[in-house]
Amino acid sequence: MPTQNNLRNLTRLAWVTAAFALVVIVFGAFVRLSNAGLSCPDWPTCYGEITWPTHAHEIAAANAAFPQRPVEADKAWREQVHRILVGGLGLLTFALAALALWRRRDLGSLLWVPLAAAVLIFFQAALGAWTVSMKLLPAVVTAHLLGGIAMFALLAYTALRLSVPVLATSAQFTQANKSKLWRMTIVGIGLVVVQIALGGWTSSNYSALACGPDFPTCQGLWWPTMDFHQAFVLWRGVGVNYEGGVLDGAARTAIQVVHRIGALLVFGHVSAVVVRAARRRETRAFALAIGALLLLQIALGIGNVLLALPLPVATAHNGVAALLLFALLALLVRTGRRMGRREDG
């Protein structure tokens, strides 16, 4: 059985890497929501530079080289800084995977989690390049978001497994009770991930304001005119520029309404998880954290609609979604099986 002393450095690195992944997710949302996703027309450089054009002669040269995409200095830095942050996350993830391999005898099956994160970083890099080359194809943008969420989840799970003791069963909290809460948490995590995907699809198709500043109805109706067929087409051919969106109002409305229905399902199930977890002293703190994040996320979602998608609120909506996933993962670890870790009452 591993000891905390054996894994102290690995645990610290796991937490640092998971926190850095959260920063990358939030900054990526800031880039996407500020319409800066194509502000660097090449990859991995930005107008041929490691950083981005800043001086007048650099901007003139960049405009000559990329006449189809004149430099927007206030946006180009956002995209390239995001790429640099992703590079830093890759280095941290590889370091974590290497250290995990060094301590593989202490980790057991947990070893495969940081290794999976290290493999996933290559796929994320490819999706980042395709986001530019395919001109913000919504399927690629959404997959890029989900890849980032998956990276964060793997890194967070590693840190949590190294830090959070598994809850021991007792006469008051039987194995059946613990297993029930564990299963409910798994379903909650699945629903949150699906809702994050719907949020990415909503954002990448510029559908966040399809209902106007109207909540809980949409365009003054409970069921407005919607085109569900066009709303979820994944591929529309080569050469389409998706910046600004290509869907008509009915398709965008369908996406927004599905996202709202998803939010309702998440709220219902995760609330049930909170109620069950709050009954036990050992999981009450987790329930309070999940409940607070759930309410904050709902408030931010409604605020996005009523306030016409202000950038700080929209960016926070992405960050809190990741934190809600993190809190559910923490509860999952707390109520899970030992698998080489200690149990603690």
Notable characteristics:
single chain; 345 residues; mainly alpha; 2 domains; two-stranded parallel ribbon; 1% strand; disordered C terminus
What does this protein look like?
The chain is mainly α and 345 residues long. It has two domains: 1-163, no CATH class; 168-345, no CATH class. It has eleven helices and two strands. It has helices at 8-33, 56-65, 73-102, 104-107, 112-133, 138-163, 175-204, 228-231, 249-278, 281-306, 311-334; strands at 166-167, 343-344. Strands 1-2 form a two-stranded parallel ribbon. The two termini are 18 Å apart. Residues 339-345 have low confidence and may be disordered.
Strand share of the residues?
A: under 5%
Rg of Cα set? 22 Å
Decide which structural class fits the backbone.
Answer: mainly alpha
Work out the helicity level: 55-70%
- Strands of the largest sheet, in order across it? 1-2
Number of helices, counting only DSSP H or I runs of 4 residues or more? 11
Main sheet? 2 strands, parallel
The averaged pLDDT comes out at: 91
Quick recap:
It contains 11 helices and 2 strands.
Q: Topology of this structure?
A:
Elements: H1 8-33, H2 56-65, H3 73-102, H4 104-107, H5 112-133, H6 138-163, E1 166-167, H7 175-204, H8 228-231, H9 249-278, H10 281-306, H11 311-334, E2 343-344
Parallel strand pairs: 1-2
Helix pairs in contact: 1-3, 1-6, 1-11, 3-5, 5-6, 6-7, 6-11, 7-9, 7-11, 9-10, 10-11
